[in-house]
Write a structure and sequence with these properties.
Length: 269
């Protein structure tokens, strides 16, 4: 099975077809954050809205790739309970990936150099190690069980066992494409937030607009907006990769009785 377009090319096409949903998701979260920080700058925004609208965007993208239905019609075309099944499966993959990452905290915190380090340094180091390990675990989990989510969108009735069977056939494809797709997207964003602020003076970075009791910092608002754009683009890229893996896995399982030489086919990167 061959794909005629790269994952970045297809992701661009999927965003174009779902531009309204994409803009509403990014705009809603950006406005929500802007208002919360304007009212209470030290507040931590809830992650619940991000998770919910992120799932909505992901489902729309999966339906666009697998069924060629886009926009709000994509989610409306789902069978009953499909949204809940998709959400539950995505949550399960995220939580199972988190368990090994939490276990790594124990040996990391027991390192003498870490114990002796300054509290801030220790916190940053532990968080970086944990997030890196969590990223690797998530990559492996998506490689093995990621097609369980588009299966919910297709409502094909397939079990997690079937998802694992697809995963064994496509894990190399999924992991490599997730690295060059969403992985590259994240690295680009991290480089931007670390390098871009240094290009502006402190006066620009801290400039504040006072509106009654509300305080708006344009530079922070712009960086938040950039962050949500990258986040939403990452969701689209993951959806494209997993939807393709679902199609590829089903095709390879269907051809399971053929000689292995006939099963190896090139896909566009």
């Amino acid at each position: 099975m061959k794909f005629d377009i790269t994952i970045w090319g297809e992701a661009t096409e999927v965003i174009r077809k779902n531009l309204t949903i994409f803009a509403v998701v990014v705009g809603t979260l950006w406005l929500l954050d802007s208002v919360i920080y304007a009212i209470k700058p030290e507040a931590d925004a809830s992650q619940a809205p991000t998770f919910i609208v992120g799932m909505y965007l992901a489902i729309a993208c999966h339906v666009t790739v697998l069924r060629n239905i886009s926009g709000f019609k994509a989610v409306g075309s789902l069978e009953k309970w499909a949204f809940f099944r998709f959400w539950l499966r995505g949550f399960a993959v995220a939580m199972v990936s988190l368990i090994p990452a939490l276990f790594i905290l124990v040996p990391v915190l027991s390192i003498p150099e870490v114990k002796a380090a300054d509290e801030t340094v220790r916190y940053v180091f532990v968080m970086v190690v944990t997030l890196a390990f969590y990223g690797v675990c998530t990559l492996v989990m998506l490689g093995l069980f990621g097609t369980w989510m588009p299966a919910a969108v297709m409502a094909d009735g397939s079990s997690i066992k079937r998802a694992f069977a697809r995963g064994r056939k496509t894990i190399g494809y999924v992991m490599s494409r997730l690295i060059i797709g969403p992985g590259a997207n994240i690295i680009l964003f991290l480089a931007t937030i670390f390098l871009l602020p240094a290009q502006f003076s402190e006066a620009i970075r801290t400039y504040t607009i006072q509106a009654g009791n509300l305080k708006f910092v344009p530079f922070d608002m712009a960086m938040n907006g950039l962050g949500y754009l990258v986040w939403a683009t990452g969701i689209v890229l993951v959806a494209v990769v997993l939807s393709r893996a679902y199609q590829l896995g089903e095709a390879r399982l269907a051809d399971g009785n053929k000689p292995e030489g006939e099963l190896t086919e090139a896909e566009a990167i």
